[in-house]
Amino acid sequence: MKLGYIRVSTIEQNTARQLDGIELDKRFEDKCSGSNSDRPALNQLKDYAREGDTVLVHDISRLARNIEDLINLIKFFNDKHVTIQFVKENLIFSHDLSNPINNLMLTLLGAVYQFEREMILERQKEGIAQAKLAGKYKGKPNTINRQAVWALLDQDLSIRKVAKELGISPVSVQKIKFER
């Protein structure tokens, strides 16, 4: 079977261009970050794929954003005798096909995609820092009722009990406790 794995980072993004025009027996689509490998559709694909299947992915960055996850996922599928094909890069990885050039290209391109992701995050941090200095970035609005936290703490409840009572994290309770 030809199985397609498609991933975009946000629900607003369109998946149409990925694997467009390729006939697939089944599609697995994630609309979430590729920064971790615990993704709903990816997990379904891992469970669904059987020996002899081919998983088609638009490009390497759609499957994984770091080298370690990329290599582990390819190994996982190859150990199940499932072939992985990256359409854009024209790379194929199979349990019975050892190709040193493909392995080199995978490592190089995976490193480039990982580097690109790290640079995006670094630029994002720099932009946020500049916006904060200019007073344009305030961060997430504070939605925790501090009065309620202090009232429960005044009743000698533990930090954990206050957190559980209010449905917030113990770290948040601790920070608020020391604001007073």
Automatic annotation (TrEMBL):
The keyword Disulfide bond does not apply. The active site is at S9. PROSITE patterns: RECOMBINASES_1 (PS00397), RECOMBINASES_3 (PS51736). Keywords: DNA integration, DNA recombination, DNA-binding. SUPFAM superfamilies: Resolvase-like. InterPro entries: Recombinase_CS, Resolv_N, Resolvase-like_N_sf, SSR_resolvase. Residues 1-135 form the Resolvase/invertase-type recombinase catalytic domain. Gene3D superfamilies: Resolvase, N-terminal catalytic domain. CDD domains: SR_ResInv. Belongs to the site-specific recombinase resolvase family. This is Transposase. It comes from Colwellia marinimaniae. The lineage of its organism: Bacteria, Pseudomonadati, Pseudomonadota, Gammaproteobacteria, Alteromonadales.
